[in-house]
User: Fold these one by one.
Assistant:
Number 1:
Amino acid sequence: MRAEILAVGSELLTPQRSDTNALYLTERLRELGVEVGARVTVADDPGLLESAFRAALGRADIVIATGGLGPTADDLTREAAAAATGRKLVRDAGILERLEQRFASFGRVMAPNNAQQADLIEGALEIENPNGSAPGQLLEADGRLLVLLPGPPREMKPLFASGVAPRLRERTGAVPLHTLVLRIAALSESDVDARLAPVYREFEGVATTILSQPGQIELHLHARGASEAEALATLERSADALEAALPGRIYSRDGRDLPAVVGDLLVERGARLATAESCTAGLLAARLTDFAGASRFLERGFVTYSNRSKTELLGVPAEIIEAEGAVSGPVARAMAEGARRAAGVEVGVGITGVAGPDGGTPEKPVGLVFVALSGAAGDTLRRRQFPGGRERVRFQATQTALEMLRRGLLGISE
Amino acid sequence: MRAEILAVGSELLTPQRSDTNALYLTERLRELGVEVGARVTVADDPGLLESAFRAALGRADIVIATGGLGPTADDLTREAAAAATGRKLVRDAGILERLEQRFASFGRVMAPNNAQQADLIEGALEIENPNGSAPGQLLEADGRLLVLLPGPPREMKPLFASGVAPRLRERTGAVPLHTLVLRIAALSESDVDARLAPVYREFEGVATTILSQPGQIELHLHARGASEAEALATLERSADALEAALPGRIYSRDGRDLPAVVGDLLVERGARLATAESCTAGLLAARLTDFAGASRFLERGFVTYSNRSKTELLGVPAEIIEAEGAVSGPVARAMAEGARRAAGVEVGVGITGVAGPDGGTPEKPVGLVFVALSGAAGDTLRRRQFPGGRERVRFQATQTALEMLRRGLLGISE
């Protein structure tokens, strides 16, 4: 069962506005076991609107339009929907009377243009609107369900809940869709997909979507089941199969982000952390403290941007900086060790690199980053060459550091 | 001239995600005099996608699709667009070679699934993508312009600017819309609007939009003119009038963000900075180093999350922490002074607060933050009570610190 959502209104096509109705409807429909195949925002133009209704009715089982039901000349939804279904509009005497009463109750006489709000598509049922003047409409035609709802969210939402959801529940038998999110850090989308596609392509009843950003991949698994427990069991089995194809790489199945996973591991292991950052300049510490409770594991952090600060605060020997350069493996190692010792904690991490866009050389190009660990999560060093601009390089450097901490704390080798 | 925007990706039809590309494209198209007639978001489904392309090509002069150009099995945009235009896909040897080189430059062998990114619709021009592996495509067919762009905004935006906008400018011959962005930090939207609305309401030929986020307000001024110089002169006069109504508060007219403005001021004044952060835990240092050249002014930073680190690294007397609490004016002052002295630099800044969601008390509720400066930007202390969650509180704390630095360095009193 597939739905399409049509948002009507030229004002929704300006850069400042976004259509919150569609997000609400997407969430409600998904709970009802209805997938949204497409979401369309259309200007107040009769030809465009009719074409959008035709296209939607041609490919979806359920079409829900919001907006364009008011009294003004650019409220064209009724006409366009009627034209697209080949039906006429019929003025409903009962609705008209209630409209007139509504105006009278505010002590006003109804202006004639309001009467169009009493026009129903031939054969449509009215969905009464207690919070506004334009009622909703619901039409079953050619096996499709066409629903027109007013645009203001405080009118649209109660009409959907009272007039549409119960009918959809009947139609679908309401098998809700469940989702499990798997997260993977510091691998590329193509590497992940090459390893996992052969697995998830074989899934039956589980749909998989891959979302990628630099340094982070998410796999969204969707399934339905006779019960929630059954759907979740199916999702967990699918996740197990993916995990087996990429052992030790899926860092979270429960919605937690990588800094939270690392923070929880540090707390579990009773290990406190000190960070030493050069090119990332505090970004790692800031990410590790994005959530409450970080004082249980982060003791302190050093932003050692200058060479002098690396030597004074972390004891990185000036000769090593001189001989190897500030961006080098030995300096990253000395930073990690220096941070751990200076703070008197169990784990130290050091990051140094060329974030760019300036400062690159043939030997040390922009994007080159060294990350080192010292102490209870192992003494390891990674050299990475990241693509992309400054922001991406810095973010990916912190992802690498976090993934090294996670694997080190769990004792997973490369 | 009417455009339609197609966003491709099932993940964009989940309630959690919204399509920021469409907002960007709507704004750029508007500047080029092109109206957006419809905006469509489509799931990764071959039939739906082809139908959406057909519908869009049937009613718009320009169709721009974003997303679905990657290497995975659910990247279907190329196939669907080709099918909708009745054309074949042709693998481009030059693109394929560059793809392989790109992987080689990261020291990796290209997985075979990446090769589909070298497929062009017959007759389409490639738009080279310097920031990613999938190139854009541009096809003139039956008087329509069809454009395929990658989904990640950092890839899509430069491709639109370099490969699409110039061609649209030729086609439309439109009088472009010019925009000036004014930025204001650490004031509320209602305060700003109360002072500025009486001024901008009188503007003729200049449209004003206010965009607000916690700790930051942007005023977008839009004008057209016979020439770019004329439009810009009109915008600058309008900005002067707004500046006069809110003296010293508009920190940028040239697109620079607050950290960049503060960084440039520090360099101009020859003042080096050391940061000491507790609740923001490196976020201020990370923001100050978001752009290249930060080593000219940032000497070092301290993330003093524990009380012990405040005492050991910054010399904050343990008795003051004991007597006043770690979140207090005297501790913020001692942090700023301690950072400045320890680093041997001209300016120190200290931030301590309750970021929440836990840790609040009746005397020191969540959102309470103290920010102090020491040295060449003045010795000042601010106490602020921020609304909102942890992320908002932390961001606003850094905005306050940056705005204090800016005003201190410029010698503007409160």
Note: The mean pLDDT of chain B is 92.
Number 2:
Amino acid sequence: MYPGLALDSNLKNLERTAKMKIAVIGTGAVGGYYGILLAKSGFDVHFLLNSDFDHVKTHGLYLSSVDGDIKLEQVNAYDDPRDLPFCDIVIVALKTTSNHLLKDILPHAAKPGGVLVMLQNGLGVEEQAQEILPGATVIGGLCFLCSNKTGPGHIRHLDYGSVRIGQYHSGGPAGKTDILKMVSDIFSSAAVAVEITGDLGRARWEKLAWNIPFNGMSVILDADTSRLVNHPASLSALKNVMLEVTGAARSCGYDIDDGFCDTMITATTKMVAYKPSMKLDHEAKRPLEIDMIYRKPIEAAEAAGYCMEKTRLLMNLLRYLDSKRF
Amino acid sequence: MYPGLALDSNLKNLERTAKMKIAVIGTGAVGGYYGILLAKSGFDVHFLLNSDFDHVKTHGLYLSSVDGDIKLEQVNAYDDPRDLPFCDIVIVALKTTSNHLLKDILPHAAKPGGVLVMLQNGLGVEEQAQEILPGATVIGGLCFLCSNKTGPGHIRHLDYGSVRIGQYHSGGPAGKTDILKMVSDIFSSAAVAVEITGDLGRARWEKLAWNIPFNGMSVILDADTSRLVNHPASLSALKNVMLEVTGAARSCGYDIDDGFCDTMITATTKMVAYKPSMKLDHEAKRPLEIDMIYRKPIEAAEAAGYCMEKTRLLMNLLRYLDSKRF
């Protein structure tokens, strides 16, 4: 069933997995962070870059992290996907606003039957990738990471860093597969905390329950997480939108109860003030990930007979603001 | 039934109504405009002022209007409501955010059985006024006016100027009463276009159907009416919110059909670009009229079993933004 897996799941030691080739598509705050950690741990990592290519080719990659700084002097850097070697594992860490590029990248990056690890926001990214490479094993990864790119080839890591991964299967939960455990081992060996979930769909919706209210409202109200949770009006709006998302999740068959919202809000209250990725995108005048974080969930819920009215209102406000960035 | 009316409804000519005393409470963009026109037409108008008192006492009031400029040299100006004479008609044109002051103003301004004309936004202003003066006749007025105060005692009139008036009655529509016709005659004699409605509640909700989406979104998206109606995302949001308001109106017993929304949007598309009053308030760092334009309609609909979820979301976003004005 999984040609890529047949080879790799027999590998019982990391010495052999360390010989695996890993591609990082999108060397920014997320891809840069995990890619540097994996390369530092001895994996053969190949970085696809865009505007930073010349700088990284000459000066390497630099991670300034709360856990200690890392400098990668020699980097396998590429600015053309056709130059990439076929890799066992392809980590996709582009903003989803660039996902139209994947059809021209993935076929050059992944070996036949390879593994795609989608470290992206929103809903539907695994489905997109699977359509491009029907023979690949597609894994979704949800990052709990505070990092940003502060300059060419320079990633700053502020807090957290764990990843929750689950295997995509169009027919429902894939369970905790061997290939998932292998990918988990690879990240773990690079000192990344990994949690495996057997139900990727549920994990995606749980993340959306946070992302939909916090990302949108941080942009609309020009506020970080601390300001949002510490004002009664924005807190009320956050909760109402979050409850709509968990309601939508249930309509799609994921049994997330409303108490989950209180847990998320409380956890956010205890976090340091944090700007969600969409807020950082907006400040940097990058396009907002509205399609994957808003439109796809709205459509999925609608198909299940659930109307996400408040989420749609936020989406429309965001689309307007997004159009004014030039 | 209407002690004030007994006297005034017998007046068949404007020569006699012209002797009536009129108080203007709140001499800003709205109160200043109508007050100056009424005074210019020969009515005995008494203006309550706040910060502009000294300037107006010395220099008078000035209206620069698309219909011609008017200078009032001698103004009956007051800075203390206790100095006002008892008036036959009291025009209340304060921002509703100052309505807590009315209990200390109205008893000094209105003669027993006098007429209160509430030129204010939102829902519930007539009820508030009636509670303060149970013996008064309370009339609600909805202004279709583009004006602003550009300096002390200086009102600038940009466009429109008509008023729609209806008589308040706690038990339902009051009909087109004689006293309403008298007030209409007074405004008409000052060259103000007046429309009489027998159903003030319905008129209030019709205005809310415009005010709730346009006022809030102009603040949240930093946009005038033209930008809002000319972008597909904001247009969609406007329509969805407006349909929620007409749904709420129907739940409250006012038969406003959804086609009304298209009419309103089309009319706004044909208007010149315009900043709603709440947008002007926000730019001037004045408090926003959230209670009367959002909270009161939400509560009225809720009491009728209708949940205005999108309006509540806008309200909470506005409350947050309103709190950041200092």
Note: The beta strands of chain A are 21-25, 44-48, 61-65, 70-72, 76-78, 87-92, 110-118, 137-151, 154-167, 194-197.
